[in-house]
Amino acid sequence: MSEEKLPRKQVSGYITGMIPLTIIIGVFRLGYIKFFFDSLGLNEVLFIIGMTIFMVINMLNDPLIGQWQDNTDVKKWGSRRIVYIKWFSPLLVIVFAFMWFPWSTDAATPMGQFVMFLHFLITISIFDTLSNIVTMAWMALLPDMTSNLGERTKINFLGSILALFASFAVITVPTMVDNLEFFQMFNIVVAIISYICYVLVVKLSKESPEYQGDRSPPLWTAIKQTMKSKSFMMFVGFNFFKTMIASIQLSYVFLFLIIIGPENIGLYFLIVIIVGWSSNILCMRLRKKFGFKKLLLRFTIIQFVGGFIFFFLVLIPAISTPAIWIGLVFSAFFGGAGVFGVIMQTLPIDEDEVKYGSRREGMFYGINALFTKPTESIGPIIVTIVLALTGYVAGSTVQTESAIFGIIFVFYFIVNIFVALSLIFVHYFPLEGEKLQELEAQLQELHQKKRDNLQQE
């Protein structure tokens, strides 16, 4: 598809939003379980109850947020997406900064546990809702700005470069949580930096004018139309398991550090980021020759097969340490085709626009979240059960052989099962080859008609 490239200023404004997404969400995912469960000592049962309630809240608010944003009155508010970043980002950073100030540190009494539970449930629920409003609006800007798959992938990759550097600010979060005063001050600084970035996004980003009059149908109709899309539901299935994997790998880094040693946290993230980044570049260069779907399938199959081999190698004491590090490099490299997730995510929205005439990013992101956000609770619940069954001692750097096996089982066996399940949905994703080329041509024609109609008004 031939389409003019976006101005550098606009691209810069958009990708700046990756910085707060990386550092705020990064601190939250790396720190909240360590903070509430491991450091403050929230009871396992209350933790699971809280995660279950949070899962329901997390599921239901996203479609409503998506429908709300898709039907924004542009004449009244001036934009469909940017207005939400402008007004809700200040609330988001404030809630984030104050989340880490304990309401109770008394883990020994029922009342102390109850107050701690309320702090846990209320703050993560409010934070998640505000984060969804801001992040959903920011994500919806990209497919609004360009229909070109290469441009979308490139912009997403440029954002990942910013994320690479931003992530260095948060990689030590699992080791700093126990130093509470420093951790609190650190998060206040993170909140300030994040807000400055959101201001830049608002000032430099620009929405495409041809979508300003687009509207979503009534809520139930919009939900049914969205869920009838085979391509979208295949993406949802794929993303369900990818999000499950991320919820485990990020939230439980502090467990992996027990195996590799906390002094190696920097090396761990360097491998994950730099090897993964290199693989992203390779996959983007190979996309035109092989197609994104074929690359994603091949890389993920190799990642799955190799993952099971490394599971058994890590259990052999004589070679456990080198197997862990080689396995980390292997997984990071063959997971690099995940860069095409943005294509799988945005193509169903393009297909829907061609079919119904309006862009509805908000509803698509909302329904995606309806199915995938529960994984942010399901993943930790699964891990918590495994830890309880294998005798993990919260807050201790010294664990029994049984507990160490439980950690290895989580990271090398359970995660790999989810990798395999994600493959099924990639295989059945329908938009490829001639069908994809036809969609791109129809989309370009539709956008030109919208621009022509806008000029005639």
Describe this entry's structure for a reader.
This protein is mainly α. The chain has one domain: MFS general substrate transporter like domains (Growth Hormone, Chain: A, Up-down Bundle), CATH 1.20.1250. 79% of the residues lie in helices and 0% in strands. It is built from 20 helices and no strands. It has helices at residues 8-15, 18-39, 44-70, 74-77, 82-98, 110-145, 149-167, 173-176, 180-204, 219-227, 230-251, 253-260, 265-290, 292-314, 320-334, 341-356, 361-372, 375-390, 401-427, 433-456. Helix 14 (292-314) runs antiparallel to helix 19 (401-427). The two termini are 27 Å apart. The model has no long low-confidence stretch (mean pLDDT 89).
In terms of topology, how is this protein built?
Layout: H1 8-15, H2 18-39, H3 44-70, H4 74-77, H5 82-98, H6 110-145, H7 149-167, H8 173-176, H9 180-204, H10 219-227, H11 230-251, H12 253-260, H13 265-290, H14 292-314, H15 320-334, H16 341-356, H17 361-372, H18 375-390, H19 401-427, H20 433-456
Helix pairs in contact: 1-9, 2-6, 2-7, 2-9, 3-6, 3-17, 3-18, 5-6, 5-9, 6-17, 7-13, 11-16, 11-17, 11-18, 11-19, 12-19, 13-14, 13-15, 14-15, 14-19, 16-20, 18-19
Summarize this structure as a short list of keywords or feature phrases.
457 residues, mainly alpha, Growth Hormone, Chain: A, 20 helices, 79% helix
